[in-house]
Design goal:
Length: about 160
């Protein structure tokens, strides 16, 4: 494997080109090279979901993906979700339902929830629980998060 790789990808709808070191994670590329610090470093092992991003429309733990594997892909981070209608709907629902405490898990949860709602507008509680199970929160106990995602899903289903 070469020491550096030239990659080209779409990030939040903008074409990007970078040279990245072999072995650099997508998370490191986003945070350290591109300054997008909304995606959080939690465990570095793919267990907590704090680093969740969308890659070609699927959720991925960016700490487990090599930056070189982003070549030719479409990436969406919390910064991209935040400016979308889905992101605004989720943000409002998280605030209205008190689903934000320390906020560390919130970016990953919002990326995961936006993906879930897009696939399952009007999702019920069981679907929401399954949909966010890879995202750990140490503060809320999940009840308020589930209520917030349900509220946003209900609003989406009425569009």
């Amino acid at each position: 494997m070469p020491a550096k790789c030239d990659i080209a990808f779409s990030l939040n709808g903008v074409k990007r080109e970078l040279t990245v070191p072999a072995g650099m994670s997508a998370l490191e590329m986003l945070r350290d090279r591109l300054g997008l610090t909304g995606t959080k470093y939690g465990c570095g092992e793919g267990e907590c979901g704090a680093c969740t991003i969308l890659v070609d429309g699927s959720t991925v733990n960016s700490c487990l993906m090599f930056a070189a594997d982003c070549d030719g892909r479409e990436l969406v981070t919390i910064e991209g979700v935040a400016v979308s209608a889905a992101g605004e709907r989720l943000r409002d629902a998280f605030v209205a339902n008190g689903a934000v405490q320390c906020g560390f898990c919130t970016p990953g949860l919002m990326v995961q929830a936006s993906h879930l709602i897009e696939r399952h507008p009007g999702a019920d509680e069981a679907t929401i629980r399954r949909g966010i199970e890879g995202n750990l929160c140490r503060c809320t106990g999940y009840r308020k998060i589930i209520d917030a995602v349900a509220a946003a899903a209900k609003e989406k289903s009425h569009e």
